[in-house]
């Protein structure tokens, strides 16, 4: 018959075993960095609207060409989805051909409430000369693709029933009720843009980057996690966190809003998924579209993610003091230096 001592001994051993099991279980349950990233990536994909369709025949068409000083322009279209074509402008530096190839950059244009502008601004044909970045990169020897985003320039309402922001609002709501969002469609279109660049014989397929200002910066950190063929990504003046948006009651453009994502993470967590590929972010300290308090913390979190991935050197950022929502000379200098380093 068990004694009191036997009972105490057995319960003490049982408690120790339970504690050890709990500790072991707790340690095993603690996710490592890769597991956390994989989990968040899965959650992000579900919130965006699920996987994108496989790329098919782009059915590219060249509409016209025009020679500029140091490069030529090609007006093109290619198929994004059946019945949905993207108008774009391709800039090819003089001397670049299938026998003398070059790195390439695709540019995501800004929003600015200027729905009549899209590809033609970075291509150097319209808009603010500050943002004629595609023309500037072509002069530096890069093949550059400038596509229209949905709702901009040639991709406004084909029936002309809805104009300006009303058509963008309609498209956002249309995708939302279908269980997707505007960001899902924007990402799909950007994946197709890379498909198109890869298809061009003038392009070095292993040396492709992207650049975007404002909404184009949002597009950069949106597409980055899903497009491994982009080796170097630059976002200029747009890293609005949901924390900052809520604190300042900021009304932002539709691609920034992914239904249900905030319970899983914030926008810097999305950008962190780009690691280990190279990413650079420019920010203005006084940018009304990026509350800087939260953005500073976000940049630190991205840097931490790159350090955990073992490539801290592949992430860089520049926050310019007393500067707003612009592409300053210093920001552009950082951009050019970054592409020269990672796409050369």
How is the topology of this model organized?
Elements: H1 4-29, H2 33-48, E1 61-68, E2 71-81, E3 84-93, E4 102-108, H3 133-139, E5 143-147, H4 165-177, H5 182-199, E6 203-213, H6 215-223, E7 230-236, H7 242-248, H8 267-272, E8 278-284, H9 292-308, E9 315-320, H10 329-343
Parallel strand pairs: 4-5, 4-6, 6-7, 7-8, 8-9
Antiparallel strand pairs: 1-2, 2-3, 3-5
How would you describe this structure to a colleague?
This protein is an alpha/beta fold and 344 residues long. The protein has two domains: 1-30; 48-343, Rossmann fold, CATH 3.40.50.1820. The protein has ten helices and nine strands. A nine-stranded mixed β-sheet has the order 1-2-3-5-4-6-7-8-9, sandwiched between helices. Residues 1-30 have low confidence and may be disordered.
In short:
The chain has helices spanning 4-29, 33-48, 133-139, 165-177, 182-199, 215-223, 242-248, 267-272, 292-308, 329-343, and strands at 61-68, 71-81, 84-93, 102-108, 143-147, 203-213, 230-236, 278-284, 315-320. With 344 residues, the chain is an alpha/beta fold.
């Amino acid at each position: 018959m068990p004694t009191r001592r036997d009972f105490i001994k057995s319960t003490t051993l049982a408690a120790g075993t339970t504690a050890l099991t709990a500790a072991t279980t707790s340690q095993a349950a603690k996710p490592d960095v890769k597991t956390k990233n994989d989990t968040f990536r899965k959650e992000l994909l579900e919130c965006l609207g699920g996987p994108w369709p496989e790329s098919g025949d782009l059915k590219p068409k060249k509409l016209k060409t025009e020679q500029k000083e140091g490069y030529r322009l090609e007006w093109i279209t290619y198929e994004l989805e059946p019945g949905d074509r993207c108008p774009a402008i391709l800039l090819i530096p003089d001397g670049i051909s299938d026998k003398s190839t070059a790195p390439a950059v695709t540019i995501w244009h800004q929003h600015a409430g200027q729905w009549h502008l899209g590809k033609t601004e970075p291509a150097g044909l319209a808009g603010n000369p500050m943002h004629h970045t595609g023309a500037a990169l072509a002069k530096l020897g890069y093949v550059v693709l400038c596509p229209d985003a949905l709702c901009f320039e040639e991709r406004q309402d084909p029936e002309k029933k809805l104009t300006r922001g009303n058509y963008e609002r309609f498209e956002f709501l249309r995708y939302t009720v279908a269980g997707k969002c505007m960001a899902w469609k924007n990402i799909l279109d950007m994946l197709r843009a890379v498909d198109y660049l890869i298809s061009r014989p003038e392009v070095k397929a292993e040396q492709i980057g992207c650049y975007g200002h404002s909404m184009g910066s949002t597009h950069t950190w949106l597409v980055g996690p899903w497009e491994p063929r982009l080796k170097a990504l630059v976002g200029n003046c747009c890293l609005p966190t949901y924390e900052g948006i809520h604190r300042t009651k900021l009304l932002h453009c539709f691609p920034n809003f992914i239904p249900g994502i905030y319970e899983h993470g914030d926008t810097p967590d999305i950008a962190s998924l780009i690691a280990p590929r190279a990413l650079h972010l420019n920010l203005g300290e006084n940018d009304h579209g990026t509350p800087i308090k939260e953005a500073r913390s976000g940049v630190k979190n991205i840097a931490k993610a790159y350090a955990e991935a073992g490539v801290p050197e592949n992430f860089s950022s520049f926050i310019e003091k007393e500067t707003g929502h612009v592409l300053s000379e210093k920001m552009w200098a950082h951009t050019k230096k970054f592409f020269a380093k990672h796409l050369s």
